[in-house]
Specification:
The protein is of the alpha/beta class. It folds into two domains: 34 residues; 357 residues, Alpha/Beta hydrolase fold, catalytic domain (Rossmann fold, 3-Layer(aba) Sandwich). The chain is 30% helix and 19% strand. It contains eleven helices and twelve strands. The chain has a nine-stranded mixed β-sheet with strand order 4-5-6-8-7-9-10-11-12, with helices on both faces. A three-stranded antiparallel β-sheet has the order 1-2-3, covered by helices on one side. A hairpin with a 5-residue loop joins strand 1 and strand 2. Helix 6 crosses helix 7. The longest helix has 28 residues. The radius of gyration is 33 Å and the shape is globular.
Amino acid sequence: MRQQTVNAATTNHEIRDNPWLRSEVEMKSAVLCTVLVAAVSLAAQQQPAQQQPPAPPKPTNPTNLGSDANGNPLRLATKTGHVSNYDESKVKPYMLPDPLVMSNGTPVRDANAWRKRRAEILRLYETDIYGRIPAKTPAVKWQVTLAESPAGEGGAIKKRVTGTIGDAADAPRVNLTLNTPANAKGPVPLILLVSFGGQSGVPQDPPVAADILARGWGYATVLYTEIQPDRNNTFNQGVIGVTLGGQGERAADEWGAIGAWAWGVSRILDYLETEKLVNAKQVAVFGHSRLGKTALWASALDERVAAVYASCSGEMGAALARRDWGETVDDMAQNFPYWFAGNFQKFAGRWNDMPVDAHMLIALSAPRPVFVTGGTADQWADPVGMFKAQVAAGPVYRLLGKKDLGVSELPPLDTPLTNGDLGWHYHTGGHSATPADWKAFLEFLGKYFK
C-alpha cells in the first residue's frame, strides 16, 4: 500500500479532493482532541486549589468554639445557645439564696437552728443537684494486700488495702495506699487524696509528701474511677451498677458519679476507723477539679471529714453558679449529665431558679475548715466566683463561732489566706494544684492537725 504523509505543506484543496488524506487527517484530529481534553482534565484534577479554595473542615465538636483573645476556652451550650463569657461587664446581677434563712422564711439565729437549715440544704442538694445515695448500698470488705517496711528518706510505712464492693466474683475493687511516718508514736492525722491516675494509671504522691511526713502526718491515695467510672452510660458499672443490680437505670433524684465518688470517701473513712496507724478523727480530704467538687460533697455528707482542700473545683463546686463566667450550669448539664442527679437537667438556662449555690455547699462543712484554690490561667473554673462563694459562706462560720476569710475583696495574687477557718489561695498559673497551693494548705491545716 502506498504511504502518504500529511504535512504542513499539504493544501486544503488536496485534502478535500483526496479521500485517503481526508480520512487520515480526520482520524489524527480526533486523536489530538482526545489527548488535549485528557491533558486539560488531568491538569484540573492536579491543581484545583488554584481554581477554588477548599471548604473549611467541619469541626469535630460543634460546641467547641475555640478560644478568646486571652486563650480562655469558648463553648456553646446547644440547648440554650449560651456561649462562655469572660467579660465582667456582661455578668448579669444575681441574688444568692440566704443560707441563714429557712425555706419558710424563718431566720437562723443559732447553732441549733443551723442544724435544721443544714439538713434542709442537704436535702435540696440530694434532690436536685448531686442526687441522693440509695438507702441500701453494697458493703465494702477491706483487706491488706501490701505492707512495706520503712524505706528511703523520710522512713515511711507503706500499706495497700483493697476494698471489694459487694460479693460478686467480678465485684469492683478499690485500692487505697497509705503512707505514714515510721517514727510515729501513735495514730497520725491523714490527708486523703481522691486522685486521678498518673501516666502509669496509679495515683501520684502529692508534691509535698516529704513535708507531710516530716510534720508527723500521713497521706493516702485512691484512684477515683475504681469506685465509679468517669464516663457516660456506665450506671451498670462501679458501685452504682452493683447497687442497681447491673440494670443501669436510676431514679431522677438518685446519685450520679460525684455522689458515688463521695460515697467511696465515706467507705474509706469506715476502714480508717479500724486502722491503728491513723487518727480517724483527723482526716482531711483533697480533690482537684471534678474531684474538688467530690471533696466538698463528701464533707457535706459525712461529718467525719475533718477538713477539705478543694483545688480548682469550678462550676458546681466552689464557684458561684449564678455568676456567668467560664463554665456554666448549661455546660455541666450538657457535657457531664452523669455526674449529677437526673433532676439537675431542669436548671439549664434557669440558674437563678436553683434553690442552692456554691456558698451553701461550702457552708455544709461548717464549722470544719475548708481551703479553696484557683489559678489565673484557669478562668474556665471562675476563680473569682470561688472567692466570692467563700466570702458568702462566711456568715455561717461566724454564726458558729468560727473565723471567715477575714476579707471581702480579692487579695493580691499568690497571697494565701490561712488565718481563718475558711482558706484561700489564688495562684499564678493554670488548672492545677501547685506546690505553692499545697504549702499554703499545710500551713492552714497545721492549725488543726497537731
